[in-house]
From TrEMBL:
The keyword Hydrolase applies. One of its GO terms (biological process) is sucrose catabolic process. It is an enzyme of class 3 (hydrolase). It comes from Rhynchospora pubera. It catalyses: Hydrolysis of terminal non-reducing beta-D-fructofuranoside residues in beta-D-fructofuranosides. Keywords: Carbohydrate metabolism, Glycosidase, Hydrolase. SUPFAM superfamilies: Six-hairpin glycosidases (SSF48208). Invertase that cleaves sucrose into glucose and fructose. GO terms for molecular function: endo-alpha-N-acetylgalactosaminidase activity; sucrose alpha-glucosidase activity. Belongs to the glycosyl hydrolase 100 family. This is Alkaline/neutral invertase. Its EC number is 3.2.1.26.
C-alpha cells in the first residue's frame, strides 16, 4: 500500500466490535490505483466530519427513529416484527405450524455464518463461504446483488438491522469518488461489492469497495443501484418504517442513481444501453445493448422510487421524469421485447428495409437471423420477453431473472405474466430440468461461443452463465409464480432443489442440459443459493411476504400507454 493509501486507510479505520474473521485477501481492491480517501478530505462539499463517515462513523449516527408509520403512505407492514426469539431460530418456523424441511435449519446456519460485520454491526453477507476452494477471488466480498436474497430472508424473519446497516453502508460507499484509470464514474454508481478488511494489530476495520475498477472485465455494475432502491422499498414495506427512506441521505441516494439513468443522450429508445457483463451475468456473454435483466430492474427501481420519493422540489422534478419514462419504457418493452407464437410468426414474415414512420419492422430485423431453436422452443401457449432488442438484432434467448422481475414489477401485463408461467410449464425440462433454474436458454456453442464469449473457458455450453442452472433464481421463480397465482410451479421447483441442495453443499450453479451436475467451477456454500432457497420456502409458507418484492400495475398507466406510442 502506498503512503497516501495508508494515510487514507488510517482515516477510515475504526475499532471493531466483533464479527466474522477471515484471512484478509488484499487482492486487487486494496490496490485501487486511483482511489484515495485522503483526497476526498479536500472536497469542499464534504467537511471532515462527513469524511469520517465513510468508514469511521457509526451507522447508527443516522437519525433513523423507530417511528413506525403503520398503514400510512401505502407502507402497510407485511407483518409486524413481534417478539424475537433466539438469534439462531428462524422466526418463520416458530410462528407457523409449518413443519420445516431439515435443510431449512442447516440453511439458516449457513446463512448466518456468511454474515459480515463492520465495527460489530452486521452489514451484509459474503458471496460464498467455501473453505475448500483454493481460489478466493472476490467471493469473500459482500456483493450488492448477492445480498438481496439474504436481505429478504432476514426481513421475512423479522431481522431488520442487517438490512438497514447494509443500505446505509452502501449509501456511504456511493459517496466515494470512483475512478477507473483517469476516468471518473458518475456520482450515483453503487459498488458491485465491498469487503471489510480487519487489521488485527490495530484492531480496526476498513472497507474497500469495487465499482468495476477491480472487477473482471472492468465493468461497472448497472444493477447494483437498482437493487439498492428495490431493497430500500422492501425494507420499508416489510418494517412499515418510512423513516429510513425519508432521510435526506436516502432521498439523495435514489436521486443520484436514477439521474444517471434518466439523463438524455443520443438514445432513441427508453431502454438503458449497457456494456456486456454489467449485471448478474458479469462477463462477456453477448448481453450488451439493452439486456432484459437491466430493463426489468430499471423499471422496478423506477416504480419503487416513485413510492418513496418525497414530493419536495427536487423530488417532484424527478417524479415527473420517472412517470414519463415508465410509460415509454413499458410501451417499448411490452411491444418489442415480447415474443409469443403469433409474434414469432410475424417476425418470420417481416419485410426488411422499410423506411419512415409506417415501418412495421422498426428495427430492421432480418428474418434469416432468427435462430432455428426458437421455432421448436416456442409453444403454442406461452411467451416471454426476449434477451435484447436493438437495430437488426434480436437476442431470442430466454433469461430467467429478467422475466421474473418483469412479472414482479408489473412490467409484464397480467396476460404476459400468465404467458411466461405457461412457457415455464410447457418447457419445464429445458428451463428447470433437474435443478431450478436455467439462467438463460439455450447455451451458445462452437463458433458462436468463441465469438460471443471470447472463448471463455468458464462459460462453456450449459455451464455457469451460459445455460447453467442457478439455485438462487428459485426465489424469483417462486415470487413470480405466487404473484400469478400458480404457486404449484414454485412447489415443484422447490421440491427438486430440496432433494439436492444440502447434499451438494449449496453450489453456486449446476451444469448440463438438465442441470444434473454440480458446476465445473461452482463455489460451495454460495450464500445466495442458500438464501434464495430460504426466501422461496418462506414465500410459499406465507405468501403475504410477496408484498415487499412485488409491485402492482398502476391503473393510470394504461390509458397513458396508448399515447406514448406516438413515435410510431
Ligand atoms: C459471479 C456471478 C455474479 C455474482 C458473483 C458473486 O461473478 O456472475 O452475478 O454476483 O459471482 O457471487
Amino acid at each position: 500500500m502506498s503512503e497516501r493509501k495508508m494515510e487514507a486507510a488510517a482515516v477510515a479505520t475504526a475499532p471493531i466490535g466483533g464479527g466474522m474473521r477471515r484471512e484478509p485477501s488484499y487482492a486487487s481492491m486494496a490496490e485501487q490505483d486511483d482511489f484515495d480517501l485522503s483526497r476526498l478530505l479536500d472536497k469542499p462539499k464534504l467537511n471532515i466530519e462527513r469524511q469520517r463517515s465513510f468508514d469511521d462513523r457509526s451507522m447508527s449516527e443516522f437519525s433513523i427513529g423507530g417511528n413506525l408509520k403503520v398503514g400510512m403512505d401505502g407502507y402497510d407492514p407485511v407483518y409486524s416484527p413481534g417478539i424475537r426469539s433466539g438469534f439462531d431460530t428462524p422466526l418463520s418456523s416458530v410462528r407457523n405450524s409449518f413443519d420445516p424441511h431439515p435443510i431449512v435449519a442447516e440453511a439458516w446456519e449457513a446463512l448466518r455464518r456468511s454474515v459480515v460485520y463492520f465495527k460489530g454491526q452486521p452489514v451484509g453477507t459474503i458471496a460464498a463461504y467455501d473453505h475448500a476452494s483454493e481460489e478466493v477471488l472476490n467471493y469473500d466480498q459482500v456483493f450488492v446483488r448477492d445480498f438481496v436474497p439474504s436481505a429478504l430472508a432476514f426481513l421475512m424473519n423479522g431481522e431488520y438491522d442487517i438490512v438497514k446497516f447494509f443500505l446505509l453502508k452502501t449509501l456511504l460507499l456511493q459517496g466515494w469518488e470512483k475512478k477507473i484509470d483517469r476516468f471518473k464514474l458518475g456520482e450515483g454508481v453503487m459498488p458491485a461489492s465491498f469487503k471489510v478488511l480487519h487489521d488485527p494489530n490495530r484492531d480496526v476495520d476498513t472497507i474497500a469497495a469495487d465499482f468495476g475498477e477491480s472487477a473482471i472485465g472492468r465493468v461497472a455494475p448497472v444493477d447494483s443501484g437498482f437493487w439498492w432502491i428495490i431493497l430500500l422499498r422492501a425494507y420499508t414495506k416489510s418494517t412499515g418504517d418510512t423513516s429510513l427512506a425519508d432521510t435526506a441521505e436516502c432521498q439523495k441516494g435514489i436521486r443520484l442513481i436514477l439521474s444517471l439513468c434518466l439523463s438524455e443522450g443520443f438514445d432513441t429508445f427508453p431502454t438503458l444501453l449497457c456494456a456486456d457483463g454489467c449485471c448478474m451475468i458479469d462477463r462477456r456473454m453477448g448481453v450488451y445493448g439493452y439486456p432484459i435483466e437491466i430493463q426489468a430492474l430499471f423499471f422496478m427501481a423506477l416504480k419503487s422510487a416513485l413510492s418513496m420519493l418525497k414530493h419536495d422540489a427536487q423530488g417532484k422534478e424527478l417524479i415527473e421524469r420517472i412517470v414519463t419514462r415508465l410509460q415509454a419504457l413499458s410501451y417499448h418493452m411490452r411491444s418489442y421485447f415480447w415474443l409469443d407464437f403469433q409474434q414469432l410468426n410475424d417476425i418470420y414474415r417481416f419485410k426488411t428495409e422499410e423506411y419512415s414512420h409506417t415501418a412495421v419492422n422498426k428495427f430492421n430485423v432480418i428474418p434469416d437471423s432468427i435462430p432455428d431453436w426458437v421455432f421448436d422452443f416456442m409453444p403454442c401457449k406461452g411467451g416471454y420477453f426476449i434477451g435484447n432488442v436493438s437495430p437488426a438484432r434480436m437476442d431470442f434467448r430466454w433469461f430467467a431473472l429478467g422475466n421474473c422481475v418483469a412479472i414482479l414489477s408489473s412490467l409484464a401485463t397480467p396476460e404476459q405474466s400468465v404467458a411466461i408461467m405457461d412457457l415455464i410449464e410447457e418447457r419445464w425440462e429445458e428451463l428447470i430440468g433437474d435443478m431450478p433454474l436455467k439462467i438463460c436458454y439455450p447455451a451458445i456453442e462452437n463458433h458462436e461461443w468463441k465469438i460471443v464469449t471470447g472463448c471463455d473457458p468458464k462459460n462453456t455450453r450449459w455451464s455457469y452463465h451460459n445455460g447453467g442452472s442457478w439455485p438462487v433464481l428459485i426465489w424469483l421463480l417462486t415470487a413470480a409464480s405466487i404473484k400469478v397465482g400458480r404457486p404449484q410451479i414454485a412447489r415443484r421447483a422447490v421440491d427438486l432443489a430440496e432433494s439436492r441442495l444440502l447434499k451438494d453443499g449449496f453450489p453456486e450453479y449446476y451444469d448440463g442440459k438438465l442441470g444434473r451436475y454440480v458446476g465445473k467451477q461452482a463455489r460451495k456454500f454460495q450464500t445466495w443459493s442458500i438464501a434464495g432457497y430460504l426466501v422461496a420456502k418462506m414465500l410459499l409458507e406465507d405468501p403475504s411476504h410477496l408484498g415487499m418484492i412485488s409491485l402492482e400495475e398502476d391503473r393510470a398507466m394504461k390509458p397513458l400507454l396508448k399515447r406514448s406510442s406516438s413515435w410510431t
